[in-house]
Design a protein that fits this description.
Layout lengths: L6 E4 L5 H8 L7 H13 L6 E7 L13 E9 L3 E8 L8 H12 L4 E6 L3 H9 L3 E9 L4 E7 L12
Parallel strand pairs: 4-5
Antiparallel strand pairs: 1-2, 2-3, 3-4, 5-7, 6-7
């Protein structure tokens, strides 16, 4: 891993307040899922039903954030398949490869297929997911608040690309 690669680590119980704050940057948050993941994390950090990764600013920012303060996270839920529920990076830390690193961490730990729901008009999110191998799987009849919902699927036929352009 180069010094320019964002640091991704499993979440710790002490990250909870920061993760809740980061969730406020999402247009379609899932607060009950994040709360359940944080409760499970507090009970058993080695949980298998939730995967919660955070990206700290200590390796990419010129001035490091003391203690590896999270600046983004990815939350996935495993069952018969893995579903990427949330992925968010704080606005000041976007366009540095963090979302890609978080997505890659989820894909590396999941058994394909992996799905994610995305607003049809969220071109930045769609571009990220498609760049690591997700393909459109279905358009849902229901809608997000402002857009049609797409389900993207990562079939696992190729590995995530480590490209910091996103």
């Amino acid at each position: 891993m180069s010094s320019n690669t964002p640091a991704v680590r499993p979440a710790r119980p002490s990250d909870a307040p920061t993760l809740r704050r980061l969730q406020s940057f999402l247009s379609e948050p899932a607060p009950t899922v994040l709360s359940a993941a944080l409760c499970e994390l507090a009970v058993s950090p080695e949980t298998r039903s939730f995967q919660l990764y955070v990206s700290g600013a200590d390796r990419v920012a010129v001035d490091s954030v003391p203690g590896g303060q999270p600046v983004g996270y990815a939350l996935s839920v495993s069952g018969g398949t893995t579903h990427l529920v949330e992925l968010v990076v704080a606005p000041d830390f976007r366009r540095q490869g963090r979302a890609r690193a978080l997505c890659s961490a989820v894909l590396a730990s999941a058994t394909p297929p992996v799905t994610v729901h995305v607003a049809a008009d969220n071109t930045a999110a769609r571009a990220l997911y498609e760049s690591v191998g997700f393909v459109e799987h279905e358009r849902a009849a229901d809608r997000f608040e402002t857009s049609e919902r797409l389900t993207l699927r990562y079939p696992g036929e190729h590995s995530p690309v480590d490209n910091e352009s996103t």
